[in-house]
Amino acid sequence: MPMQKKKFQSGEGARYVTRRAALNKLQLSLKDFRTLCIIKGIYPREPAHRRRAQRGKSGIHILYLKKDILFLLHEPMIWKLRDLQVHLNRLRRAKGMHQKDLIKRYANTIPRVAIDHVVKERYPTFIDALRDMDDALTLCCLFSTFPKLKSIPPNLIALCRRLTVEFMHVCIAARALRKVFISIKGIYFQVEIKGQAITWVIPHNYPHEPQKKQEVDFYTMATFADFYSTALGFVNYRLYHNLNLYYPPRLGSYNAERLEEEILEENETSDRVAALNLPLQKTAEDVEDPADAELDLDTFAVDGDESKAEEARKEYEKVRKLKKLFEGLKVFLNREVPREPLVFALRCFGAQVSWDETTFPEGATFPETDETITHQIVDRPDLEKQYISRYYIQPQWVFDCVNARELIPVEKYFIGTPLPPHLSPFTVEYRTQRYVPPEEKALTDPSVIVNKDQELLDEISDNDIEDIEDDKKESEDETMDADDEDLDEFDGEMTEEQLAEIKRKKMKVELGMPEVINKGKLRREHNQMKLLKEKMIQKKYRNLYKSMKSGRMKREKEIKLLKYKRRIHERTSVENKRAEIRARRAQAATLM
Amino acid sequence: MEDAQPAEEMNGLPPAEKANDYVEYEAELDTSDEEDIRNTVGNIPMNWYDEYPHVGYDWDGNKIIKPERGDQLDNFMEKMENPDFWRTVRDLQTGQDVVLSDKDVELIQRIESSKIPDSTYEQYAPWIEWFTSEVMNMPIRNGADHKRSFIASRQEAQRVERYARLIRAGLLKTREQKRREREKKRERSFYMMWSTDDAEDQHMRRITDHIPAPKRNLPSHAESYNPPPEFLFNEREMRIWKKQEETPWKRKLHYVPQKYSSLRQVPAYPKFIKERFTRCMDLYLCPRARKMRLTIEPEDLLPKLPSPKDLQPFPTIQSLVFNGHTDMVRCISIDPLGQYLLSGSDDMTIKIWEISTGRCLRTIPVGGIVRSIEWNPNKALSLVAVVADRKLLIINPGVGDHLIISKTDSILSTPPVQETIVSDKVKAVVQWDDATPEEWENGIRLVLNHFKEIKQVTWHGRGDYAATVMPDGANRSVLIHQMSTRRSQLPFAKSKGLVQSVLFHPIRPFLFVATQKNIRIYDLVKQELFKKLMSYAKWISSMAIHPGGDNLIVGTYDRKMLWFDLDLSTKPYKTLRLHSTAVRSVAFHKRYPLFASGSDDRALIVSHGMVYNDLLQNPLVVPLKLLKEHEDCSDFGIFGVTFHPTEPWVFSCGADKTIRLFT
């Protein structure tokens, strides 16, 4: 008799292990396991059949692939972690025994767990690493704003700051910035490096506040930051070398007499580097400017079709123009403006930037009194002393220019004027069924007039306003009725009686009547046909179809709501303006 | 105290002096070693003696008795009368009251005002320079200094030399250097990790089947610090937001859109750290799986069917309404030539209508609720079978060709000679009766009294046989009557369940019997079960057979219509869920590829059901038209549906007491 097969020894039950089993297998504490998983990038998997993968157990367990756990088993870091544990135990004991010399010795020799090899392992190619930089940069940016915290290693915060500044420097050098967006969470930047879009958020000022222990575990975050900072360091190194820049960065004003040592000593978070305002020194001078680099587009034309190649060429031209967007501008930042993001955004497109030396001591290149300044960015309602030779504009102008890929007129952004809405440049990547506000439409199609207020003021009579109200009612009705069936009774232009009367009349030549098309009836019939067709859907697709339809309905409803809100807003704003004008006139009349 | 002192001075009363004396006496005692300790208990908490009448022992070992203490009143009197009360303290050691002297009071006052307690101490006495700070010209000592004091120390020089050597060799480091070294050791050093952009090291082990984490969604307009006005929440949305405090995952956005008039007013986002932490936890703990993203539109899921316009003719519009019945109309039937319509209703009558005009020609009372009615398919006979409660009435409607009417009457007037004896079993189930003269006048020619209520009657294609169904009849629920011999048969010996309806095959000698869930096909010649069709429905209501005889549609009370292809399988070829409530009746057209179904949702659905001669091609089923003209009446809609034998017209009767013709 052949050996009987036991349950779960092959197939899905054998492929997954629970976290508990994994801990037992690896002989690690949960804390160490977590660290290991975070650094090695091991994550639980969703099995196709949970019940089978959990070996018949109900509930939801955290399941890892067994192969992943075996992969962890061979990781030399495990032994390092164990050594570290032993070392920390010794230190704790020494502390308990008040053995000062031992404490000193152990505290100074805590072993460092090297994770360089893991970076290479997780990101076998440089592109892989770039693809994962979104989270890395956002987390490092956040960490660089933190104060000294107990659960975060002391030099990690400084390292994060240094690396983010270095990355921004390389973006400036490569002119890689593409999109920017000021959100309520922070300022989003999107750069394009090697064809990869990397998006990160710089939080607004002073983001750190104490968190509840149950809500945020800084230790876990620090583990992530540890790995991400290492990866970011290697990415920075390669990016700097690609652009023939020194790494760690050296500023252009470097003179040969100063010893190299000294420059290295000038340490990571040097304010001069962090100012982002001075060009970096190159290792070789003959390298052409990345903004001017010519792309060989003919290769596209060969393998892709013509229209695609043409599109690519246009896009490429646009990007080339974008890279030189602010070239020739001399911008001065007032002290109330967030310096770092603006300097980054401006310098990425070739502007010269300076600021008040009292706000940031290093890196300001020209004073406010400089007459050649073209733009001064201010964020206050009024300024006492103003130069005629320059525009005083609000910071949103810079961001809107970048997203529009051209220098937009400054009139709307003058000091003290109410700003136009700031739109997200990322919505293009969303699906087709979405609400496009008129401002966004105006960006692509200049014929759309965004601010109808003035015209409305001129033209709208009271009747028109009533019309608008009627429209609104109608649209509300539409939203209420799902199948629109009861709505279409309005277009029965010819009743049957009338038709009969026409027939009854004596024979004579009459004016021909165009055929009356009952649109409502047609639509009703069409709907009916669709209804019957829907009922013929195969059973296996029925639920899918239903959910797709309901999703579409939901989105449509959302769009309708937004349109309705917009209309309401426009109406109220027009009314307010009219009331204002009337009040002004009345005032003038009384004065007369 | 400040106020009290002058008062005391003014009074200058003897008790104060007395007290002074006492203090002096005490001071004297202090000096003497033997007598100064009046109480020998030592420095102990005196509350140990609280319970005793004494406070300790004197030098001779006698108890020191606590002095008498007055009550509160005495105390008060004392306070009022005694001017020295404020400076009287109790000596805990002896329990005696002691009046403090002026000196003591002064001392206390000085301590309280943080002055030096000794009033005689001169704080600002002139400074006496015992050692002068000025350099003197002459040394104090007279002797000459030793040579050593002029020459540098050799040991020191050696030590310095050693240190210098060590420092030069890098063996000795300052504390600062050591710290820096340690730091350097901990610091990351970066190097060129990837020599090219996308060259992969094949030999490196990696995580199996890596699924990259999805990126975070990029922000939309609503997240802007200065969004277009329509993105801001109105009051209703804000209310909903607040209501969903406990269930934040149901919110459509995870933040409240805000509008700030300028960048400087934008505060830090309070949930930034929390959000980042959640992302970290997702990366580490969220199970990952590959999911296919759908790129299709819902329209792509709709079946590709020919347009109804190409499948004309079919009934599209209501053209006649037959009014006249006073209760709901349960069944209708059309004569084989298509001139007259017969309807049976709950008002216990049947009506004969002329189709072309919609006029009611005759009304025949039948004395029972008419559940089923069927015109004899034989064109040479003018007969209808009507089911009224327990009776099956064979009626000559008396419309149409006179010759046929009279011929039919003549056939029915003479009963045939019974050659065989009717068995008791059949006799118990049905009795054939001739009509009374009164009934004859109304057109009723034969009456078959059944033992249970009849539900349905159906004619065989040639018009000689009729089958009736009595669902409660158990094994005797189906009966087959032969008109020419006036005989009845019980085809089944065993009950197969609740029989819902029966049907004769249009060409072959088959009988279809629909029970609650299945349909059995019996071969009447061989007298055996030919096939059993599985409906997988809960309750069958009706069935109709395609004139070709190979396709069957079955309506069920659980909203479905099943199309059986008898050549294909015993399972439904197609299940149509066109109706939203129970399907009451289905019908096939005799000539056109049409079938119709009526249901309780008042909808009559006409569909195209094309059967091809080619056996390889499956029937094509396309719903064509939904006709919803019947009115709602106590949750019932349409009861009966039938097609015109030659034209593409459909009739329906319903609970709203009308019959409608759609053309």
UniProtKB/TrEMBL annotation, chain A:
Residues 460-469, 476-485 have a biased composition (Acidic residues). Keywords: Nucleus, Ribosome biogenesis, rRNA processing. It comes from the Eukaryota. InterPro entries: BRCT_dom, BRCT_dom_sf, PES. GO terms for biological process: maturation of 5.8S rRNA from tricistronic rRNA transcript (SSU-rRNA, 5.8S rRNA, LSU-rRNA); maturation of LSU-rRNA from tricistronic rRNA transcript (SSU-rRNA, 5.8S rRNA, LSU-rRNA). CDD domains: BRCT_pescadillo_like. Residues 460-485 are annotated as: Disordered. Residues 321-415 form the BRCT domain. It is found in: Nucleus, Nucleolus; Nucleus, Nucleoplasm. GO terms for molecular function: ribonucleoprotein complex binding; RNA binding. GO terms for cellular component: nucleoplasm; PeBoW complex; preribosome, large subunit precursor. It holds the Pfam family Pescadillo_N. The keyword rRNA processing applies. Belongs to the pescadillo family. HAMAP family: Pescadillo. Required for maturation of ribosomal RNAs and formation of the large ribosomal subunit. This is Pescadillo homolog. It comes from Acyrthosiphon pisum (Pea aphid). The lineage of its organism: Eukaryota, Metazoa, Ecdysozoa, Arthropoda, Hexapoda.
TrEMBL record, chain B:
Its main location: nucleus. Residues 1-20 are annotated as: Disordered. Coiled coil: none annotated. One of its GO terms (biological process) is maturation of 5.8S rRNA from tricistronic rRNA transcript (SSU-rRNA, 5.8S rRNA, LSU-rRNA). Keywords: Nucleus, Repeat, Ribosome biogenesis, rRNA processing, WD repeat. This is Ribosome biogenesis protein BOP1 homolog. HAMAP family: BOP1. The keyword Repeat applies. Gene3D superfamilies: YVTN repeat-like/Quinoprotein amine dehydrogenase. InterPro entries: BOP1/Erb1, BOP1_N_dom, WD40/YVTN_repeat-like_dom_sf, WD40_repeat_CS, WD40_repeat_dom_sf, WD40_rpt. Required for maturation of ribosomal RNAs and formation of the large ribosomal subunit.
